[in-house]
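Subject: complex prediction, re-run

Hi both,

The earlier run crashed halfway through, so I resubmitted it with identical inputs.
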Amino acid sequence: TQLLEQSPQFLSIQEGENLTVYCNSSSVFSSLQWYRQEPGEGPVLLVTVVTGGEVKKLKRLTFQFGDARKDSSLHITAAQPGDTGLYLCAGEDSNYQLIWGAGTKLIIKP
Amino acid sequence: DTEVTQTPKHLVMGMTNKKSLKCEQHMGHRAMYWYKQKAKKPPELMFVYSYEKLSINESVPSRFSPECPNSSLLNLHLHALQPEDSALYLCASSQRIYNEQFFGPGTRLTVL
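This time it finished cleanly. Structure:
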């Protein structure tokens, strides 16, 4: 069974702080997607990373795909209350299946 | 149009009721999905349709019955559900199977 381990599971920090969320696996993924979900809503795709070592930026969010395409990280600079939500990573494996991480619940306190 | 719409937003049903959840997308996506999500958990895949054919059924109980009438519509028929089936039911679509997925807002289902 393939696993995508996401950490931390829960993070509560003050506005203005920086944070990093990790997704790790022993399996190689052809791509990895990051989603954010707010309570009572569906997940919203933030970014897809495809190439090993790739770095993508979305305003204050920086996404990185590991060189071996087994892990990924999401770094948020100067977190804002609007960043609060459940962050989910999902990797596409060699069988074209999407493997989901368990999610990181992020709370940014004003 | 880059939206996936779902109706109803909320649904309360008894264990003997029959109801349907509806999902629609007009992005020309050829893959559509039903997920079940419990509180503070990631979405769990239930069904995948690719080109209007059921591709994957993740061992879902027969009280859940999917239907794909055309490339834009996806239904989930519910019958004789149990209280533990209460959850957020999410529909998603993607250009091809397991590609980047666009999710609807979900239907919050409560089974009494």
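The mean pLDDT of chain A is 94.

- K.
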